[in-house]
Design brief:
The complex is a heterodimer of chains A (about 90) and B (about 400). Helix content of chain A is about 55%, strand content about 0%. In chain A, helix 1 runs antiparallel to helix 2 and helix 1 packs across helix 3. Chain A is mainly α. The model of chain A has no long low-confidence stretch (mean pLDDT about 90). The longest helix of chain A has 16 residues. By secondary structure, chain B is α/β, with parallel strands linked by helices. Chain B is globular. The model of chain B has no long low-confidence stretch (mean pLDDT about 100). The chains are: A mainly alpha (about 90), B alpha/beta (about 400). The interface between A and B is medium-sized, with 13 and 17 residues.
Amino acid sequence: MSDNVQDQVIAIIAEQAMLEVEDVSLTASLEDLGIDSLGLVESIFAIEEAFDIQVPFNANEPEKSEFDISSVAAIVAAVEGLVKAQS
Amino acid sequence: MKRVVITGAGTISALGASVPETWEAMREGRCGIGALDIRDVERLSIRIGGQVTGYDAQAHFNRQQISLYDRYTQFALLAAREAIGQAGLTFTGDLAASTGVVLGTSGGGLTTQDENYRTVYEEGKNRVHPFVVPKLMNNAAAAHISMEHNLKGPSFTVATACASSNHAMGQAFNFIRHGMAQVMVTGGSESMLCFGGVKAWEGLRVMSRDACRPFSANRNGMVQGEGAGIFVFEDYHHAKARGAEILAEVIGVAMNSDASDIVMPSKISAERCIVSAMRDAQIDPSEVGYINAHGTGTAANDKTECAAVAGALGAHADKVMISSTKSMHGHLIGGTGAVELLACIMALREGVIAPTINYEEPDPECALDVVPNEAREADVSVVLSNAFAFGGMNAVLALRKAP
């Protein structure tokens, strides 16, 4: 399950960043990958659609969001948490 | 060039159904934002807005009119009645032939679209009311004002998202300034507080779930409002000759574009627009006493706007008062500049600066005098009104006390 979440999240981010999947490292931040604020909300939308979850994220206060977007690994962990909470 | 004055004002918003009611609310720092009362609100994650409450369309319009008037058109017509009534003008002959209506709106008849998409998609019906198109179109409000008041000059609608009203009023100002009309009816109207309207905004993740707190460090987004503001702009000599009461003088406008990002604001471009408006008005930054901010309550706008104001006004930025009345009436999108112009007129005419309410924590990136929480008495002679829209389209107006 968790590998699957990770692969899917990386695929979504790679598509948004217009990169190959292998070029998206877990330690990279979205900024490192060249994803701007619009790219971020679009990625979150794609994640919500892919996993049928609600991601709590307000672009005005990303630091206060329970959804950690500081790195690809953090996003994967946050999505895993939300998927688990859902089931 | 001709001098241009404002001889009539009208409005309806969450703050009131007339200019006196709105000024009273602004003076008291009253918040018009509350729980949204709309169909399917339970399917929204954003459930607050500056809604016009206690509104009864049938008290103002007959059945045939209601079947043709979207809510945004109704608001525009009510505000226009108040404005034109105050101006005391009757449009006949040459005056009717040259007077037009330039309005700002972004969504137009969005509620009509929302209701009728429901009919065909959700309810699966294959028939809609025959007036859907004339009711939803973006120029419907301007058209109905022209019909109700016999205005046969140039009329059109400007759509530049959150700057629509300022662009519209800038156009009306230029028409009179350049002698193409002696009177113009202008302003803006918006009514996007329907399920589809709010749902679309939710998607961007820039909306607040609890309050609009412009310039406050704990601000967490914008809150939508609805309503209209309509004004009568008039050639100064025309107004003077007929002994009209003058509310304020419009002295300058500037419009420009960021040409950079579809949603993120640009400090350089906003600053350039403010500087150009002051130059157009032939005023020195030190003359500006008050700025009605765009002040949406988003992280990005408020810090960018403060930096732009600081850049444009230099050392005088520390002395100027700047407030965002969106904290009270919400963001009326295409109608917002028009309702906000009322705060500018109140400052010039009544000597009262509308506050930025819900201000809780200072933000070092918004270190200007934002007139926090309480209105202030002040004698100001020149004011600016900022509007910086999605799409990077900016429009700033400059006003002076009535001559």
